[in-house]
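Lab channel / #folding
Pinned by the channel admin:
"Please post every new chain as: sequence first, then the structure tokens as a reply. Keep commentary short and put observations after the output so the thread stays searchable."

First post following the new format, from NK:
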Amino acid sequence: MKGGAPAASDRRAQVAGRWVRCAGCGATVYVPRLTRALGVCPDCGHHHRLRAAERLGHLLDPGSFAAAPDRFRGADPLGFRDRMPYPQRLARARESTGLDDAVVRGRGTVQGMPVVAAVMDFAFMGGSMGSAVGEAVTRAAEEALATRTPLLLVVASGGARMQEGCLSLMQMAKTAQAVRACARAGVLTVSVLTDPTFGGVTASFATLTDVVLAEPRALIGFAGPRVIESATGRALPEGFQTAEYLREHGMVDRVEPRANLRPVLARLLSLCAPRAADAGRYEAPRRPDAPERDAWQTVRFARDINRPTTLDYIGMMCTDFVELHGDRLHGDDPAVVGGPARLGGRNVMVVGHQKAHDTAGLVARNFGMPHPEGYRKAVRLMRLAERLGLPVVTLVDTQGAAAGVGAEERGQAWAIAESIAAMAELTVPVVATVIGEGGSGGALALAVADRVLMLEHACYSVISPESCSVILCGDPGRAAEMAGALRLTAPELLRLGVADGVVPEPGGGAQHAPEDAADALKAAVLAALHELDGLDGAELVARRHARFRDLGVVADV
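Reply from TO:
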């Protein structure tokens, strides 16, 4: 298996004096310097493997770790022997590592916040998962569930422990159901995937957590690289199965250098904990008595490249935000962003369409038009918010969903439908804000909410005025006329009942004074959330259903 340097004990054996050779770049590194850098090469950034105790030392608060009182050792259910009897192999691993088996389990704190931790140690038989590992991980999850304490899993494994046969395989089911039980109960679970993470652990508990973090260049997958190359007879793509490759393909939330892991974990633990609403009352800002722009002018305002984007608003409205990535199926769509955030003293899950302020950025974000993986990422984050009891706040700004062969092949309509249906069923408060363009089903997929707010110069429509003009008039030149006919402005949609409130913009629009616009939007969102406080999940769903059930005008026959 590729990647990684020897574990800490092996490194010491290689030291000639106090120097060691880096497995990443080949440079000779002074051991105390490498230790101070948490095992990261100061020359090339290669993340050397750490022992479980070292992991606990840099992730948890000093002195906070308390090992679990019940400990487990692997047994020999098969009477297995390869080059030596399995019991002898276990004894050697225990002697060389000082561990009972490949997991260290206990409780501790991260910046004062409690966690139940299970940390794997690759030095013990390659971190292979046998019955003792499965039992330790399962006990950690069960303790997290019983005490409603977040679960932290740090993973390093070559796969299943073959010496225990099919009983090793069964640990995948045991650990998977234990982690899923935490998810169902709203107990936060976080995994940190390190080099290497392969086989049964990857296909069970390690990737089923709410948030999946990974260290740079860690090799992660099901089958190992050599197995795949042997089976296919082909060379693997550059960077294949690295953490960065998996982040690009939507499988992990973040790739974080080792020094960043503890602060990121602390932020996640803080932001994902439900917080009581502030005692103060919030009032939505009043719309100024300013002359209304006509519909076409509003469309042009809504599309202005200088208008604040979702990430701009998040940066101005929220005191903290951890962006999460990926749909866990295909990729990470940059046209949709989201993650837990702190808004006005309360924790929320923010999800929104993301545009940009220049051509390169717009192209990279596909002009804010999501692919199916964007909507699936949004649904994943909203369902996580529901499990954790966090309100959902969405920011809508898209001309519509992405059109193209790839989007259709990956189920664009299905992804939009699932997002609409999922939002309708959320048992937490949902506030949607239309900050720019609200285009068709691509916008509605993030706007099935208890309260729908529109910025004063935003627009929201079944179709763009240009497309409407072409389809109905056969003439693209009648877009301005069609904009008026579609009644797509905030005041019109307020009268139709599609919008619940209009948020004022500063003179010249949000693009003229972004911070003032953000202040007004923040106040409106907090006021809407305050109105929804105290409603239980069943009532929220029933009211949301009634809200959309009543929209529409029909004539009796």
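NK: The first helix runs from residue 8 to 14.
TO: also worth noting, The first strand starts at residue 19 and ends at 21.
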